[in-house]
Specification:
Strand order of the largest sheet: 6-7-8-3-9-10-12-11
Membrane topology: Peripheral membrane protein
Number of helices: 13
Family: Belongs to the ABC transporter superfamily.
GO molecular function: ATP binding; ATP hydrolysis activity
Structural class: alpha/beta
Helix content: 25-40%
Distance between the termini: 54 Å
Order of helices and strands: EEEHEEHEHHHHHEHEHEEHHHEEH
Pfam families: ABC_tran (PF00005), oligo_HPY (PF08352)
InterPro entries: AAA+_ATPase, ABC_Ni/Peptide_Import, ABC_transporter-like_ATP-bd, ABC_transporter-like_CS, Oligopep_ABC_C, P-loop_NTPase
Strand content: 15-25%
Radius of gyration: 21 Å
Number of strands: 12
Length: 344
């Protein structure tokens, strides 16, 4: 079954990922739903521990089944992945879906050359010969902008710079032309110049291949550069989602307000202080009742009857915009007006 441009290539419905530990059950992801079409980038943003990486490891089927309970549906091009045999997932990983990890040095084997590691993926999924795999590795290194690829194919990871290692990871992820690419904070450890180069590379490759991309980050500046749509996660749940420009320009959830308020502005007054979110992310062993953000939310007291602490808000989707918040539209507009006044 092949999806059309109007149908989601990836569809996640009511995903729950719970880990069994000695201290109890960790509800790392607790009822997450989203769709992604071909050729588009979904940016997933949130603090550490919000469930971003756990979600994408579940899509790839990389969790330990002995200690992890996964519920819900994960459909890739119409094929259900949750509960699929490991042999099926092994065929899909690298071939139809692939992941770029945050730490390239930790993800690459120090004992094998870059070319060997890229070529091994290609051989596994295509049955190509060693000579064909080496030629493909050189081709991919050239495609991701590695200079002298016919020579650097025999280099080891420690002989590459951080930016070059990340490019090599991208080459490995794309060697079999996957239709879904998951990038887990791939530019976090890189300087700004190299980060921009990697972002441009991903956009160029997406345009060339029509790849669907999930880009995980805690940096809204990166989201502004690369994403088409944004999904904001907090405490294992989606609290806001929608088109990038709309979410960044008119956020609808207090947590998204807080993330934007924590960022310095390059075009605003230099004397405006940052406004960090107070408190700490919730424990997913024992998450707060009601809205999981309410202990840190400056607006919880504005909602009558203590509703934020008692009742978990539903994610309401209207014209592609979604929010999980008890605040009224009027209260939200008042906040945005006050914030804009303080900024000027």
């Amino acid at each position: 079954m092949t999806s059309t441009d109007s149908q989601p290539f990836l569809s996640v419905k009511d995903l729950k990922v719970h880990f069994s530990t000695e201290d109890g059950v960790v509800k790392a992801v607790d009822g997450l739903s989203f769709d992604l079409v071909r050729g588009k980038t979904l940016g997933i943003v949130g603090e550490s521990g919000s469930g971003k990486s756990v979600t994408n490891l579940a899509i790839l089927g990389l969790h330990n089944p002995d200690s992890t309970k996964i519920e819900g549906s994960i459909e890739l091009d119409g094929e259900e992945l949750n509960g699929a045999p490991e042999k099926t997932l092994e065929h899909l990983r690298g071939n139809k879906m692939a992941m770029i990890f945050q730490d390239a040095l930790a993800s690459l084997s120090p004992y094998h050359t870059i070319g060997t590691q890229i070529g091994e993926v290609y051989r596994k999924h295509t049955g190509a010969s060693k000579a064909e795999s080496r030629a493909r590795a050189i081709e991919m290194l050239k495609r991701v902008g590695i200079p002298q690829p016919d020579r650097r194919v025999d280099s080891y990871p420690h002989e590459f710079s951080g930016g070059m290692r990340q490019r090599a990871m991208i080459a490995m992820a794309l060697v079999c032309d996957p239709e879904l690419l998951i990038a887990d904070e791939p530019t976090t450890a890189l300087d700004v110049t190299v980060q921009a180069q990697i972002m441009d590379l991903l956009k160029d490759l997406q345009q060339e291949f029509g790849t669907a991309i999930i880009f995980i980050t805690h940096d809204l500046g990166v989201i502004a550069d690369i994403a088409d749509d944004v999904l904001v996660m907090y405490g294992g749940r989606c609290v806001e989602r929608g088109p990038k420009a709309e979410v960044l320009r008119t956020p609808q959830h207090p947590y998204t307000f807080g993330l934007l308020g924590s960022m310095p502005s390059l075009d605003g007054p230099v004397d405006v202080p940052l406004n960090p979110i107070p408190g700490s992310p919730p424990s997913l062993l024992n998450p707060p009742t009601g809205c999981r953000f309410h202990p840190r939310c400056a607006f919880a007291e504005k909602v009558p009857d203590g509703r934020c602490a008692k009742e978990s808000p539903l994610l309401e989707i209207v014209d592609g915009r979604g929010k999980a918040c008890h605040l009224t539209d009027e209260q939200r507009r008042e906040y945005l007006t006050d914030t804009a006044a303080k900024a000027h």
